[in-house]
Write a structure and sequence with these properties.
globular, single chain, 176 residues, AGR_C_984p-like
Length: 176
């Protein structure tokens, strides 16, 4: 009466049942031959021992939708301003890097992220919240354009951090 049960991970979360999580390149993320969200979900490899909430957050339809919107916006953006003009892309970046509470203030967020911190009078240097300068320096949009945010390691980091942020907000009963 014994039977074999074959478990197959959902197509959008192959890492759920497998320990082999291959890295993803920007080309594979943006290629028409691949599912960019499935590739991005592969990047969700939390470092915490309590990884289940993060994996569950990454399996949520909202996570999948937001990552799809983010990768599509990144694929078509020619400048950082074009990327940040997409409200979902901006929300994903801000949420992933601890500024999700500021996502509704699109003008401030865009200006702060595009500002050149080397200029003493730039907006990012005038803000009292140190998170702004940290995120600004992480992406360096003013000096490096889209090169930092387009790097495969950055996309993996954004994916993982966004899943962690959604996990925290879900466990706290908050909405991002």
């Amino acid at each position: 009466m014994g039977s074999n049960v074959n478990l197959k991970a959902p197509s959008y979360m192959p890492a759920l049942l497998s320990s082999n999580t291959p890295g993803s390149s920007l080309l594979s993320l943006l290629s028409a031959d691949s599912d960019p969200v499935a590739e991005a979900c592969d990047a969700v490899t939390p470092n915490q021992t309590d990884a289940e909430p993060i994996v569950l957050a990454a399996a949520e339809p909202r996570f999948r939708h937001d990552l799809t919107q983010f990768t599509q916006a990144l694929a078509v953006a020619k400048t950082p301003a074009q990327l940040l003009a997409n409200p979902v892309a901006l929300r994903v970046l801000l949420t992933a890097y601890g500024l999700g509470d500021k996502a509704a203030d699109v003008g401030l967020a865009t200006q702060a992220l595009l500002a050149d911190p080397a200029r003493s009078n730039s907006l990012v240097n005038q803000l009292t919240d140190p998170r702004w300068i940290s995120v600004n320096q992480t992406f360096s949009f003013a000096t490096k354009g889209l090169s930092v945010v387009s790097a495969p390691s950055t996309i993996r980091a954004i994916t993982s951090l966004y899943a962690e942020a959604l996990s925290r907000t879900q466990s706290a009963g908050l909405v991002v």
